[in-house]
């Protein structure tokens, strides 16, 4: 071992010893009583095991699923032990590396999808296999805004087999997932019709949609012959989606299980999808970012202590792009 390598090992050991004794801020869920009851607590900094990274969190994305988790609505699907740290996506800097992990070093800048817990804290444990190197020109807020949206948008477009020339309609196109879905569909060469409320039309137009429709005017009821409709809005939008599809078309819902009976009656296919958590998905979307074809839009940043306020804004369904917690604020 060289002197430099020996010195780095000693420094790393010192840092680990310090972290063993350290405390951190964390937004903790102690009961499934809704996000309004969340509090910022002081807890121990977790320690990385084999195959894990300890990441100093610079920013964390805030998503509707965080509200669902706080209500305990995912317990049958993805059981979560309490107390637990809220949040599922982060961007930050590697602070410590678990034993046997050689692909990452302290100081590497990463972003990652954690799942449904662990993000709203000063430090987070990240499976090394889930970490993706942050593009150098992407800031931490943008990097934190991307993992969940990228995973969900890519899964929806894959399910609909969206590619060059596909005619795709996207509900809730101004939201955190919808805004990425519009850009990713365009990057794949699709023709995009984006639905949004009156106040979001300019925002969605700037995303690159070919056609932008004000959903509040009823004009969306005139849309026909779409190859794919992606619903990130809810049951009312899903009900209007059937008539938009051509025979043999595909309805992809991100929020509610479509009716198999209605799909059969219309001669279309319908699916409920969840995000694709494969690291390669985020790497691909990062490539579109670096090529200038996609950019996360950040509506507002909140400090960690205002996580409940951030979730309240998400709960309104009126956010343009993503809401992010800035842990360096």
From TrEMBL:
SUPFAM superfamilies: GroES-like, NAD(P)-binding Rossmann-fold domains. One of its GO terms (molecular function) is oxidoreductase activity. InterPro entries: ADH-like_N, Chloroplast_QOR, ER, GroES-like_sf, NAD(P)-bd_dom_sf. Residues 34-325 form the Enoyl reductase (ER) domain. Gene3D superfamilies: Medium-chain alcohol dehydrogenases, catalytic domain (3.90.180.10), NAD(P)-binding Rossmann-like Domain (3.40.50.720). Pfam families: ADH_N, ADH_zinc_N_2. SMART domains: PKS_ER. It comes from the Bacteria. Signal peptide: none annotated. This is NADP-dependent oxidoreductase.
């Amino acid at each position: 071992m060289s002197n430099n390598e020996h010195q780095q090992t000693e420094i790393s050991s010192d840092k680990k010893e310090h972290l063993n004794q350290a405390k951190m801020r964390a937004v903790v869920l102690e009961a499934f009583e809704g996000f309004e009851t969340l509090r910022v607590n002081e807890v121990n900094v977790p320690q990385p095991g084999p195959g894990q990274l300890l990441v100093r969190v610079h920013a964390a994305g805030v998503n509707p699923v965080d509200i669902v988790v706080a209500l305990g609505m995912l317990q049958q699907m993805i059981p979560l032990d309490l107390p637990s740290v809220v949040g599922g996506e982060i961007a930050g800097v590697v602070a410590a590396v678990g034993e046997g992990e050689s692909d990452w070093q302290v100081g590497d800048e990463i972003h990652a999808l954690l799942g449904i817990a662990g993000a709203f804290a000063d430090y987070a444990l990240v499976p090394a296999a889930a970490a993706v190197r942050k593009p150098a020109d992407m800031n931490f807020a943008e990097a934190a805004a991307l993992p969940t949206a990228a995973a969900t948008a890519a899964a929806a477009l894959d399910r609909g087999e969206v590619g060059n020339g596909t005619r795709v309609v996207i509900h809730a196109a101004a939201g955190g997932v919808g805004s990425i879905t519009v850009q990713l569909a365009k990057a794949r060469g699709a023709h995009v019709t984006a639905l949004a409320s009156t106040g979001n039309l300019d925002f969605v137009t700037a995303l690159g949609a070919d056609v932008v429709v004000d959903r509040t005017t009823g004009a969306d009821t005139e849309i026909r012959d779409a190859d794919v409709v992606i619903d990130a809005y809810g049951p009312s939008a899903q009900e209007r989606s059937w008539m938009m599809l051509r025979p043999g078309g595909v309805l992809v819902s991100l929020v509610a299980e479509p009716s198999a009976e209605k799909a059969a009656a219309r001669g279309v296919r319908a699916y409920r999808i969840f995000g694709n958590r494969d690291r390669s998905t985020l790497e691909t979307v990062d490539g579109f970012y670096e090529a200038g074809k996609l950019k996360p839009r950040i509506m507002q940043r909140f400090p960690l202590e205002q996580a409940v306020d951030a979730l309240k804004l998400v709960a309104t369904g009126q956010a343009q792009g993503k809401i992010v917690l800035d842990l360096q604020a």
